[in-house]
Design a protein that fits this description.
TPR_rpt, 49% helix, Rossmann fold, two-stranded antiparallel sheet, 26 helices, 6-stranded mixed beta sheet, 634 residues, VWFA domain-containing protein, alpha/beta, single chain, 3 domains
Length: 634
């Protein structure tokens, strides 16, 4: 007890000076109460109720005592009372772990539900979540081994990369764990000065490969642990087009878990073996062997720690709770909070969602839920706000917002919005500005060419209609009545010319982190606006077969209109080519065909493994077949 008293001190003793104004404030308040009570000495008791407001009672002292106690406790807590020392490590755990994942076709086997690959992905994510310390790397192998991620302490990045793992991303089929162990050894040797661990995730290995791995790790301080995938009964490997994978003799391949060999291999290299389970028992048995290895010996560990005084001031917060409760009841706490709040230039309504998400995040959520009007009100970022307005068919409002942005993508998106609104001349100027800032913006060049063609086509039609006299004007009037368009600005004839433009701006596929994903500049229905129009490279071949018949029909209708200028044919062509944009401008419900097209426009190809596939292919080409393929071909 005496030792604790002798060690007791404050880490921040200057906070004790704040006790002086506390006592001065209490003395001032006591004096004020006494002054208020002096009226009883000069006024008759029977007149006091009529001359003084409130009850004539003695001043209440307990609020002052409560304020004094709360102030004292706060000052003591901020001063940092301490009497205990705690050891704090001065070195961060940098123990390396390299996970080598089998991405051969064996991982498609369904002996584990739904298959080995899916279960392995989930298990790896759980593994990286359990590793709170140390460095981790990820290696994928099939016929060749490749680095997915080098040694890092960013487990979130590793979890995102795990989602893209699939045998489809591997450039060479096969099963070559020897290359994976060799690559894992190189990663640990080059990226860390400490002996590390290798975790092999696979279901089978040949005897020759096991011997090679043992020879490779013989003189190395690395440990090899194995997480077995699959069952001893095994299951056939389904093919995407039906059937099962067969070997050269025509027999169905049934990969089985070789538990005995894997266990012997792990034991020979100083590691542990566990079979993959639904629970975390396998990881809890493997993670201590690969994560909690001590960095130093007991003597070195004592030298690598530093004793620091333990700040126990936060325990005094419990004594402040009664003061806070009484203060809130009397209104004092609210008064202090209002006084301390800074004065803002703009007052905004507060909502529950503002506690957890920013306005941009709420807008992104509303946009994904299919409510662009609400998203436009929530977005604070001008680019995202313009995106929501564009999807809500408020093209002119979106163009006005994008006008204040000076980057090439914003000019390109503004051109799309103006074209949708029927302002072709301004749309051309916006595309030209975008190309001047970024000449490599191919979508802007393609849309510029198409809008220019449509503008010329419009002028030619106006000239033909002008030569036709009153008959052409009557045909135009019939067109407007039959198509149901209500735009008085003459945009009825411009609806077809907007079909060749991208339905979504380039940076409209954008998340709150500011990342852009450019979509294809032309939807598939652009073929119907003119026989000379072409699709962008992203769209070629994707909708050709699906929209071929409708495109040919639209072209024939447009040609007959230009040559014969019959009212019925012209009305039919205008209704067909301008239906999508006219419906969007007038907020009319889309036809089933247009709903399918709109759904296609909103669909972005989801291929998270595309980057890994190209990366592995480039690495494989750089190696120039240096490593000989080993093992079976499945």
């Amino acid at each position: 007890m005496m030792e604790l008293i002798s060690q007791f001190h404050f880490l921040r003793p200057l906070w004790l000076l704040m006790l002086l104004p506390c006592f001065l404030l209490v003395l001032f308040l006591l004096k004020q109460q006494q002054t208020q009570g002096n009226w009883t000495k000069v006024i008759a008791p029977e007149l006091l109720p009529w001359l003084l407001e409130g009850d004539n009672k003695k001043p209440v002292r307990w609020p002052l005592i409560l304020v004094l106690s709360g102030w004292v406790v706060t000052c003591l807590a901020m001063a940092g009372p301490t009497w205990i020392k705690q050891p704090v490590p001065i070195s961060k755990n940098q123990h390396p772990l390299v996970v080598a994942v089998d991405l051969s076709f064996n991982m498609f086997a369904a002996d584990l539900s739904p298959n080995r690959l899916t279960r392995a992905r989930f298990k790896l994510q759980d593994l990286f979540n359990l590793r709170s310390e140390g460095l981790s790397a990820l290696v994928a192998y099939a016929g060749s081994a490749h680095t997915v991620a080098p040694l890092t302490d960013d487990n979130r990045t590793l979890n995102n990369l795990v989602k893209a793992l699939s045998p489809d991303v591997m450039p060479v089929p096969g099963n070559n764990p020897v290359d994976a162990i060799r690559l894992a050894k190189e990663l640990i040797t080059q990226g860390s000065n400490e002996p590390g661990d290798i975790l092999l995730v696979t279901g089978s290995i040949s005897e020759a490969q096991a011997e090679q791995i043992t020879d490779l790790l013989k003189d190395s301080p690395l440990r090899l642990s194995i997480l077995g995938t699959g069952t001893e009964q095994g299951a056939p490997i389904p093919l995407p087009k039906g059937g099962y994978l067969k070997d050269k003799q025509g027999a169905i391949v049934v990969p089985q878990l070789d538990q005995d060999r894997l266990q012997a291999l792990a034991k020979a290299n100083g590691g542990r073996y566990q079979t993959m389970t639904l629970a975390d028992t396998d990881l809890k048995a493997l993670v201590p062997a690969t994560s909690n290895k001590p960095l130093f010996s007991e003597r070195e560990s004592a030298d690598q720690t530093l004793e620091q005084w333990y700040d126990a001031g936060y325990w005094l917060v419990w004594l402040l709770l009664p003061t806070a409760l009484f203060g809130f009841r009397r209104g004092w706490l609210m008064m202090v909070m209002i006084t301390l709040l800074p004065v803002t230039q703009e007052a905004k309504a507060f909502s529950w969602d503002d506690l957890w998400q920013t306005r941009n995040q709420q807008g992104q959520k509303a946009l994904q839920a299919g409510d662009p009007a609400k998203a436009a009100d929530l977005f604070e970022n001008p680019a995202w706000k313009a995106q929501a307005l564009f999807e809500n068919h408020e093209y002119e409002a979106a163009a006005d917002i994008l006008k204040n942005l000076n980057d090439a993508e914003s000019d390109y998106n503004r051109g799309n919005a103006l074209a949708k609104a029927g302002n072709l001349e301004e749309s051309i100027e916006a595309y030209k500005k975008a190309l001047a800032k970024n000449p490599e913006l191919k979508d802007a060049a393609q849309n510029l060419e198409k809008v220019t063609e449509e503008l010329q086509k419009k002028k030619r039609e106006e000239e033909q209609q002008g030569q036709g006299g009153d008959g052409g004007q009557q045909n135009q009037s019939n067109q407007k009545q039959q198509s149901g368009q209500k735009d008085p600005s003459g945009q009825q004839q411009d609806s077809g010319e907007n079909e060749g433009l991208e339905s979504q701006p380039s940076d409209y596929q954008q998340d709150p982190n500011g990342k852009h994903q450019q979509e294809s500049s032309l939807p598939p229905e652009s073929q119907s606006s003119s026989s000379k129009e072409t699709m962008t490279p992203d769209e070629e071949g994707q909708q050709q077969s699906q929209k071929e018949s409708s495109a040919e029909q639209s072209e024939k209708s447009a040609d007959s209109t230009a040559k014969q200028a019959k009212p019925t044919d012209q009305n039919s062509a205008d209704n067909q080519t301008g239906k999508a944009v006219a419906d969007s401008l007038n907020d009319q419900p889309l036809s089933p065909e247009q709903q399918a097209i709109e759904s296609w426009l909103r669909t972005i190809p989801d291929d998270p493994g595309g980057l890994l596939r190209r990366k592995f292919l480039q690495q494989q080409r750089a190696l120039q077949q240096k490593n000989i393929r080993e093992g079976a071909s499945w």
